[in-house]
Amino acid sequence: MSNLKTIFGILLILSTIAILYALIFTIPVWLVYLIAIICIPLWILSLGFVTMAKPRKGDEEERVKEPFTGY
Amino acid sequence: MAEILIDVIVAFLGGSLLLGLHRKIMARVQRRPGPPIIQNLLHSLKFFFKETAFPKTASMPFYVGIIFILAVVWIIGVIAGPVTENSLLILFGVYAVYKIVEHNAGSSSGSPYGKMSCVRAVLSAATELPLFAAIVLVYAKTGTMNIAQIISYQGVHGPLVASVPLAALMFFVLILAKSPYSPFAITKGKDLVTGYETEHFGVLRGFLMFSESVAWFVLCWLFLTVFFGPISVLWLVVGLIVIAVITGFINATTPMLSPNHSVMTLITICCICFVGTILMIII
């Protein structure tokens, strides 16, 4: 889970830089669309993974092994 | 970029509040107090701080990736719709991919509820038929698929809802099919818990709710823009609220149809409206 947070932390920083770059500098329209389409969802998803609550120490294993609701 | 960001935020906040209003109206029709209108928005935000678990059977990274694609397609919807007022065909494509996402999100978790929802998503693709037919009829009437040009056309000739009302009705049926607790919402039937969303918890559920709020706003905006022409922000807000009231009332008083009845009803409405509109245009 800590790996996940690290990966999405990096993606959050990269997507923030890309969005700010498109906001501040004048770049071709197609590049603005590309950044918006990829980086806005990525920024939201990354933010979610960074801010989400961690399971308690005792529950961590149980969360991973937890089968889905269907069974 | 600033315009896109503002429109995405407006679509998310507006869509969330409209879905909250929709839920409130359903509750009041059923004589329940119902949650506050802001509840849907609070739920979306709350999930970002919840613990997230991944089912053992989930096929990673597909399980997360498909939710990401859902957000991507509706961001494209915002760009092609409110931002650039581009072609209707792009929005048809967005809706088609949305149905594919529903299908694959259901299968990605490995849950039987998700899988059943995945199968039903194929059937519910029948909702694309009214959308496609409505687009064809709008093209037949205006000679263009560009939203900006359709708005200009209506500025000169009056709103399309007056000249092709059955095409507008067809589009409205699509919005009804997309609304929560709709008689046509077979992919999220209560017998499937929450369908393809059943196994998406925490952050992923919040992300799904974000995309669905944006989707609801874009579809309602598209309906009002394509059939009611150039309208001010005030009338747009009034229109969005009216759509939430009407769909909320219908959904509160109509039971969910079985998958085959849902498909047959959609196709029947589509055929009647299509033939009726063609006759109206010819006559």
Report what the structure shows.
The complex is a heterodimer of chains A (71) and B (283). With 71 residues, chain A is mostly helical. Chain A has one domain. Chain A contains 3 helices and no strands. The longest helix of chain A has 23 residues. Chain A is rod-shaped and about 50 Å long. By secondary structure, chain B is mainly alpha-helical. The longest helix of chain B is centred in the N-terminal third of the chain and has 28 residues. The model of chain B has no long low-confidence stretch (mean pLDDT 84). In chain B, helix 1 packs across helix 3 and helix 3 packs antiparallel against helix 4. Chain B has 12 helices and no strands. Chain B has one domain. The chains are: A mainly alpha (71), B mainly alpha (283). At the A-B interface, helix 1, helix 2 and helix 3 of A face helix 1, helix 3, helix 5 and helix 10 of B.
Summarize the structure.
The complex is a heterodimer of chains A (71) and B (283). Chain A is mainly α and 71 residues long.
Structural class of chain A: mainly alpha
Number of helices in the DSSP assignment of chain A: 3
Described by strand count, sense and barrel closure, the largest sheet of chain B is: none
Number of strands of chain B: 0
Furnish the topology, listing elements before pairings:
The complex is a heterodimer of chains A (71) and B (283).
Chain A: H1 2-24, H2 29-51, H3 60-65
Helix pairs in contact in A: 1-2
Chain B: H1 2-29, H2 39-46, H3 62-83, H4 88-108, H5 112-123, H6 128-142, H7 147-157, H8 160-163, H9 165-178, H10 202-228, H11 233-253, H12 259-282
Helix pairs in contact in B: 1-2, 1-3, 1-10, 1-11, 2-10, 3-4, 3-10, 4-5, 4-6, 6-9, 6-12, 7-10, 9-10, 9-12, 10-11
